[in-house]
UniProtKB/TrEMBL annotation:
Coiled-coil annotated residue ranges, if any: none
UniProt xrefs under Pfam families: Cu-oxidase_2, Cu-oxidase_3
Native source organism of the sequence: Glonium stellatum
Positions of the UniProt region annotated as Disordered: 543-597
Family recorded in the similarity comment: Belongs to the multicopper oxidase family.
Protein name: Oxidase cueO
Organism domain of life: Eukaryota
Start and end residues of each Plastocyanin-like domain: 39-150, 333-463
Record's keyword annotation contains Manganese: no
Amino acid sequence: MPAVAVPQKTFISTETGDPIDYFEIDIKPVELQLYPGLNKTRLVGYNGQVPGPTFMMRQGREAIVRFVNHADRANSVHLHGSYSRAPFDGWADDITEPGQYKGKANIPTDYYYPNRQNARTLWYHDHAVDHTAENAYYGQAGFYILQDSQEDALGLPAGKYDLPLSLAAKRYNSDGSLWDPEANNEQVSVFGDVIHVNGQPWPYLEVEPRKYRLRFLNTGVSRSYQLYFEVDGALGQQITFTMIGSDAGLLLNPVPTETLFISVAERWEAIFDFSAYAGKNVTLRNSRKVAADNDYNSTDQVMRFKVGNTVTDNSNNLPNGLPSELRDVPFPTPRDPIDHTFKFERQNGKWEINGIVWSDVNQRVLARPQRGAIEKWELQNGGGGWSHPIHIHLVDLQMTSRTGGRGELMPYEKVALKDVMWLDTSETVDVIARYAPWDGIYMFHCHNLIHEDHEMLAAFNVTALSDLNYNDTTRFIDPMEPRYRAKPFQESDFQGRTSDFSDSAIAEKVAFFTSLDAYAHVEDAEEALSKYWATHTGGPEATAVTGTTSLTVTSTTSKTSTSSTSTSKSTTTTPSTLIITTSSKGNGGGKSSTTTT
């Protein structure tokens, strides 16, 4: 089980009175003995751990995380499943080179996370342009679990009976090193012939004969799974288990199932009852011929649970079972017309979205939903025998239909909110989402990381509402805003806890973030959006400048009266000037242009 991240310091927000935790994570190489009989394997992990340490967070308790890059290549960290503001979301081009951390000179910035959504299983992972697959493959991924009182009240299995299980398929060389997809110029997929759970090849875990909560996360590069459980000696007899959670937290209601489809970056949670299997082994298996994946000798096996004969703790063992309803899921208002159709396909040797790749800087903003608007998007697998897990940043989405391929939504998908939608071969999936609570520019892309690194990646711009009657203290439109970019550090300062690593600098950092008011008034923003859309109807998307990738706010909106104790927001605004600079990354050369709006 991954270690739990421990905050270096905890402060109290002067804006909310709530705690803010400050963490430091060191991205660095590590050698681990993984494959029996071979040499140690060189990996690169968060704090030198694979998976990285698990963040156990409470709703309403914000976090500041400094990721210090002692690795081999650039990184960008995405907290997957969080509605983080755009500069802290892990934009692909917002990279941190080795010997750097995120934060300009004299600006005490790092990654700043809200932790204000409902309880859910998030994860943090690399998102650096052109190198996400390489970084994630070698270990840059970890759990980030958000808890709240509503979920606590259900009495679900907790502590050692709540198991985070990350899946990844990899390939080894004969000397024990990992087969390197980047060095081998892999441009299609890395399915891997060795299945890992929490970094271990085909592991086992000793469990007690009682109920467990299993949090499945697919951290792999390309492989998808159709999982099922089987007790030894009962070949072919699949065991029923109960789905309770998805990417965005608890389902509407529990859903019994015998199989679970899970593609790259998806999270699914289940309750499994081992009580009937005391003294036996239960094996988690994977079906053959899943999606477009290549099968190998043992990719039909995932891990084994060795069930003991004694229960040491019956707390949170759900003696009365699960309730018929787990939570009131905030599904978006139904919408019939399709606002956008996006086709994901390989054309002309490129992985494209509607014929666009990431280096098409002036074309890569493909949608401009208004802040708080509900839109329906159609996601199409363009064919060619591939499958595509599609991740849309910022929002939780409802899958409303699947055609082609499997031909229908899975029962557990029907009662879930998601942020990754798996398009199996020949499938089309419709999704509805409310584009809130923030405005700003965010990404959407295929989460087969080979496809992503080869530019199956685009952006959408949640556009501001000029008559919203709400005023953000600070605008976070631009994911590349200069003051939040990376800066170098001196190793002596890092080791000696001096300069930017001193206690006084960290305290200054927290005060700076508090002053931004990035998340503290999300309820006010949501209330303003609710009132706005109660009297407005969706129409054409707001006008925006094509190709915006970098917007620098040179004069900001002002507020007439606020204080650290205020609970409402002023609505007086002054005009803003946005200088929009486009720049390319990856394979696109060096374009630039400037437009003022």
